[in-house]
Design a protein that fits this description.
Length: about 240
């Protein structure tokens, strides 16, 4: 999708070449980004300066993108701003459908699982992830790192809650969602935590599994990461209080 945005920016601003776009974070294929933040460096004197008026630029980009991407806002920033490195937190949501009718067309929006789920047990497990921990058990190892290299992340919020289904998209089922906010995330971290917590809620894993795996990093016999379809980047924070 970054390629589409580069293309329409270059066309709208009549740039000689497509600009470089830097995002606040990367997402796996199939993961939704509802609140992504990007920055783009433009020439000091772009050929069409009038098109840089924020409201005009947003309207023009959205008209050309035609729903592939929706630009919410545009604003000038200082040269020191960096979409990724200036961020103080990221917030994700994971949506799970419990005992709903299986519809392939809707599986791109959530993860369908059999219930019942013990939400209290899942929230107790989520609370174990709060604070600073070594998340090696729940992350894919980064290139040029070894198995003994810690993957330390700071989690500010992690909580499961039931959510309504006002459009009745899951007949016979119900939705629960995990809201999780951290300074940053490592690869597959949220999806691995979700699959582990769901297994705890189903009674397939011990209630203290998350605590034990954070204390002694080991992925052995943990479930595979939850599908990317249920995960969405909701927001990225800058300059606000991180905790």
């Amino acid at each position: 999708m970054a390629g589409a945005l580069r293309e329409v920016l270059a066309r709208t601003l009549r740039l000689e070449a497509e600009p470089t776009i830097v995002g606040a974070g990367r997402t796996d294929a199939g993961v939704h980004a509802l609140g992504q933040v990007v920055h783009v460096d433009l020439p000091a004197r772009p050929p069409t300066r009038h098109a840089l008026e924020p409201a005009r630029l947003v309207a023009s980009l959205n008209a050309q993108l035609r729903g592939r991407i929706h630009v919410i806002a545009a604003t000038p920033v200082e040269d020191s701003f960096h979409a990724r490195f200036s961020a103080t937190w990221r917030a994700y949501r994971y949506l799970v459908c419990v005992d709903g009718a299986r519809l392939d067309a809707l599986d791109a929006l959530w993860w369908s699982v059999p219930g019942p789920l013990d939400l209290a047990a899942m929230n107790a497990a989520a609370a174990e992830a709060l604070g600073t921990h070594d998340f090696r058990s729940f992350c894919r190892r980064a290139p040029r790192t070894g198995p003994d290299d810690p993957i330390t992340r700071l989690v500010f919020e992690a909580r499961w809650r039931p959510v309504d289904d006002p459009l009745e998209l899951a007949p016979g089922g119900a939705f629960v969602r995990l809201d999780i906010r951290a300074q940053s995330f490592c690869h597959t971290m949220v999806r691995s935590l979700v699959s582990t917590m769901v297994a705890i809620g189903q009674g397939r894993l011990a209630p203290d599994t998350v605590r034990r795996r954070l204390a002694g990093p080991d992925r052995d016999r943990l479930p595979a990461p939850a599908p990317p379809s249920g995960l969405a980047l909701l927001a990225v924070g800058y300059d606000e209080e991180a905790s």
